[in-house]
Amino acid sequence: MQRLxxxxxVLAVIAAIxxxxxxxxxxxxGAFLSAIATGWLLCASIAAFDTLWGIAATALGGAGVSVYxxxxxxxxxxxxxSICAINSTFDCDAVNTSAYSxxxxxxxxxxxxxxxxxxxxxxxxxxxxxxxxxxxxxxLRLGGIGAVLYxxxxxxVSHSMGKWCLFCISLYGVNALLLVLSWxxxxxxxxxxxxxxxPTLGQxxxxxxxxxxxxxxxxxxxxxxxxxxxxxxxQKNDQADPGTSASxxxxxxxxxKAYTQTAGKVxxxxxxxxxxxxxxxxxxxxxxxxxxxxxxxxxxxxxxIVRADPKVQLRFKNYPISxxxxxxxxxxxxxxxxxAAISAECAKNQGKYWELxxxxxxxxxxxxxxxxxxMAKQIGLDMNAFHACQADPNVLQGVKNDxxxxxxxxxxxxxxxxxxxxxxxxxxxVHAKAETIEALIKAAEAGAPLPAPGPHKSEAE
Length: 461
Prior knowledge:
Distance between the termini: 53 Å
CATH architecture of the largest domain: 3-Layer(aba) Sandwich
Largest sheet: 6 strands, mixed
Number of strands: 8
Oligomer: single chain
Radius of gyration: 27 Å
Number of domains: 2
Low-confidence stretches: 189-194, 241-248
Strand content: 5-15%
CATH class of the largest domain: Alpha Beta
Shape: elongated
Strand order of the largest sheet: 3-8-7-5-6-4
CATH topology of the largest domain: Glutaredoxin
Mean pLDDT: 82
């Protein structure tokens, strides 16, 4: 690979420049892809000077991406979008919070973190120790094969979802590069003497003259995985919503951190669908997007709260994360959000709003026109009236009116909740998950003296 040193460095520089130029021009997908290519080329450049150091650098790059994905897996559940949630096709959050993003309740990215650290350690120990573990290149190749096969599986999952994670794509390239470089390492004459081209696993693990680098590298990988789990669980606990203490009393200080004053007036024009008793004293106003995975989780929880408590009512307002009907959003983002919102409004005209909205939230991967028609037929809508309503510009204008009202409240993401009846007579904005809302409601109904809300976040900053 020595002949490739200069070309690879030059290509890496060109890709880096392209990433900067495209970034300044606002071409986010192109900028991301160029930045990803820069990383791949830099790792390949290092490998052109030294194969094992190149493997170590590539694996460490994969570890860095895994750390971000693990952090964002948790942050996304709190409504914090990742930097590569760009549009309806390239949406890292949709992929990173899908059913395939966890195994045994642990983000797959944490498994990847331990894996990449182990590979980096194995390559580094093989390079720096003499004679080093002779089976290391073969173990690296085995890891590369497994990683590429798993990349193919995840690629198939993304294709099935119709959504792609750019950070995941960067890992696909990392895995492919690890496989190529490990194969190059195996090709060296001293890779594993007297063991053949494809040694047995026993030969790979035992040959090495008693060298402990293999066990050390694997140990470091496992330790990194364990530390990652501890940090992740700590962050998850910190993010956990406040509720009641072990004694059953309410932690008012913690609960008070969950809500603030609103940025403006919560406007209700009477068009909102209502779940629960319209005269119930505690009123929750929810702004949500039918293509938002966090909204789907929150919506199911909120419905359970309303159904279980006759003192609570819920009113829904639209905030599609799509520039097609939301002037506060750049780009298409969630391409199905606007048609889904319109369809839900049309179902409301036939008294079936909550039935269709539930199906839309449960089937976020299937919200094309034919899919929505299928859902509408399932709940018994008059399809002629439904289609006529979908084409009515006044219905689209109603969705846009919700968006404008959200803009006056300084809403930037979904779901967003506003509650009246827990602190005084005014609405407060709740900056937490649905579980916190339940705790706030219970505290208010129990007569707990909840503190007055602090200033809105934008005013406090």
